[in-house]
Design brief:
Blueprint lengths: L10 E2 L8 H12 L6 E2 L10 E6 L3 H12 L4 E4 L12 E3 L2 E3 L14 H9 L7 E3 L6 E5 L2 E5 L3 H11 L4 H19 L7 H5 L6 H6 L4 H7 L4 H8 L14 H11 L4 E3 L3 H13 L5 E3 L4 E7 L4 E7 L4 E9 L3 H8 L6 H6 L7 E10 L11 E5 L4 H9 L8 E5 L13 E10 L1 H10 L1 H22 L8 E7 L1 H8 L30 E3 L9 H16 L6
Parallel strand pairs: 1-2, 3-4, 3-14, 4-11, 8-16, 14-20
Antiparallel strand pairs: 5-6, 7-10, 8-9, 12-13, 13-14, 15-18, 15-19, 16-17, 17-18
Helix pairs in contact: 2-11, 2-18, 4-5, 5-10, 15-16
Length: 552
């Protein structure tokens, strides 16, 4: 879906002096009217010799860690196989529309919160700003006769829901209390925490210890919540692409608990976030960023148990003192060789992948979208039996009953569309094998399946929420899990690396440490997914590597 802008991928910039690099870089982007990664930035005056750090992958973890290290005076080289930086948070453009596939709204972006404090450390908190979404309702759950907006504050939600379900007052109060305690304790977890580190502090992490094996459904059943109430409470959790009977309660509490303090969207869109982080790297002396540059091998010094270099698909070799892997952790075994990983570590990397998604990016003209929806995220279900609907989405084919997540970024930021236009992003979990099999056998059938799936969701939007939507659509781009696999090196098009169930969210989960003393992991597969969560763990990794405080 991004091929329309691929012609910009290999443009190069000759290397200016270090003092003017950042300004010239930004000016060239402005002159050409391009996005940040339409330009392949790789200074020619930097020999392929020893860097302090080589970072593989320019997702939010690689960019945040790289920006902090570069500002601290470290020599950084960051490599990205895609021609756009940002990972799932990249921005692609077509016909004046700017779309971000993976980030829809974020948390911890208010003043003195985690994202703000990292940006402040980097000195870009004034360039990268965020707008808080309506605290009275930034999430909207729609199914059957229910149309419920979820806002900021567990106490307020408890009061509102008690009016709808008066016999569950005490249970609801306890439910929100449990979520809040789990969230607080997860927020407090150190980088690279282990089971024993948590057990040494049983009071500090009591709720994590108690509920680590629980699913969201188990808590619903414990309180005997009726199906309608379950559907409302599970609504926000659908961003994790698992039904209540499979979703880890820790993940639900971590996500919902974070949004309890407010939801945010960047003032100028997510491209500005990525651009400023990348610029902190490329504007520093002896730092470089390489796009459309795939790393195909990592070489070891077996005697000293260290990584010594990386090799690109173009046949170039780069060396460094330390290496940071910001990709799916299983891919590191392909680059190094599975046989070199200790069996215990191989077991950690033997996880199945989380589900992929069908993503529909819609451009509209001449429609007053504000008459029908606002800035909220819409979680739609054909009915209240969420677990059953998910099973249909996970099975091959196009589900009879639908669940999807929808929002209008153009109602949150003014610079994402041409004048008089709006955009919608609609996303549904889907079966990777179904689309991969079609694509390998018959590209026409693959395209037809994508269209049918997308049109079914658009028809529901038109019927339930946005009348006359179809007649105003001027652009429709559809991506399947195979799209994410191709452009983002996401195996099977997965959205979150591992499934976010109790079997994968536990004390045996991979953390930042690798089997080699100078190689470290960062990203959704090693910490937990989420824009703010990965930025936070990136800051903690920076502190671990340098001894410098990223923030209090």
């Amino acid at each position: 879906m991004f091929s329309k802008i691929a012609r910009f991928a290999r443009l190069r910039q000759s290397s200016p002096t270090s003092s003017t690099r950042g300004a010239l870089y930004r000016q060239q982007l402005k002159n050409k009217g391009l996005g940040i990664a339409d330009i392949h930035y790789s200074p020619s005056n930097l020999p392929m010799k020893n860097y302090d750090y080589i970072i593989i992958g320019a997702g939010i973890g690689g960019l945040t860690t790289g920006a902090l290290l570069a500002q601290a005076g470290k020599k950084i080289a960051i490599f990205e196989q895609h021609y756009l930086p940002g990972g799932y948070g990249h921005t692609f453009k077509h016909k004046g529309f700017s779309f971000c596939p993976g980030w829809h709204y974020v948390y911890d972006c208010g003043k003195q919160q985690r994202v703000f404090n990292v940006l402040k450390k980097l000195g870009i908190e004034k360039q990268v700003t965020f707008e808080q979404l309506d605290p009275n309702g930034f999430d909207r759950v729609v199914f059957n006769e229910i149309d419920y907006k979820i806002g900021k504050g567990f106490a307020k939600e408890h009061t509102r829901l008690t009016k709808m379900f008066p016999t569950y007052d005490k249970q609801l109060k306890k439910y929100f209390y449990i979520l809040d305690k789990i969230h607080q304790q997860m927020y407090d977890l150190p980088l690279g925490f282990t089971f024993w580190a948590v057990l040494k502090n049983p009071l500090r992490y009591s709720y994590i210890i108690k509920y680590r094996h629980w699913t969201l459904q188990k808590l619903f059943d414990y309180f005997t919540f009726p199906q309608k109430l379950q559907c409302i409470l599970a609504g926000q959790g659908s961003i994790f692409f698992l039904p209540p009977q499979k979703l880890s309660l820790l993940v639900q509490a971590g996500g919902v608990g974070s949004y309890n303090a407010g939801a945010y969207y960047p003032t100028q869109g997510f491209e500005m976030v990525v651009q400023n982080l990348l610029d902190k790297i490329t504007s520093q002396n002896n730092c470089a960023a390489h796009f459309s540059t795939e790393i195909v091998k990592m070489n070891l010094d077996h005697k000293h148990k260290k990584v010594i270099s990386v090799e690109t698909k173009q046949g170039k070799i780069y060396t460094a003192d330390k290496f940071i892997f910001n990709g799916d952790p299983q891919l590191s075994m392909d680059l190094i060789g599975k046989k070199y990983f200790p069996r215990k570590f191989q077991k950690k990397l033997s996880y199945q992948y989380s589900t992929g998604a069908l993503s529909v990016f819609i451009g509209m003209q001449g429609l007053d979208l504000k008459k029908y929806i606002g800035q909220e995220n819409i979680f739609y279900y054909s009915d209240g039996d969420i677990n059953s609907i998910y099973e249909q989405h996970f099975a091959p084919g196009i589900p009879e009953k639908l669940h999807f997540f929808c929002n209008a970024p153009s109602l949150r930021s003014d610079n994402l569309c041409p004048p008089g236009c709006h955009q919608l992003v609609v996303i549904a979990p889907c079966n990777y094998e179904y689309f991969a099999d079609l694509k390998s056998k018959d590209k026409a059938l693959y395209d037809q399946a994508k269209e049918k799936y997308a049109d079914k969701m658009i028809a529901v939007l038109e019927e339930k929420l946005i009348p006359d939507l179809k007649s105003h659509i001027i652009l429709k781009i559809i991506g399947s899990p195979t799209t994410s696999e191709h452009f983002l090196s996401a195996p099977k098009g997965n959205c979150y690396s591992t499934p976010l169930d109790p079997a994968n969210v536990n004390f045996n989960r991979l953390n930042y440490k690798s089997p080699w003393q100078n190689m470290f992991y960062i990203g959704a597969g090693s910490s937990l997914p989420g824009f703010a969560t990965i930025m936070h763990f990136s800051a903690l990794l920076y502190e671990k590597l340098t001894g410098d405080k990223a923030y209090d």
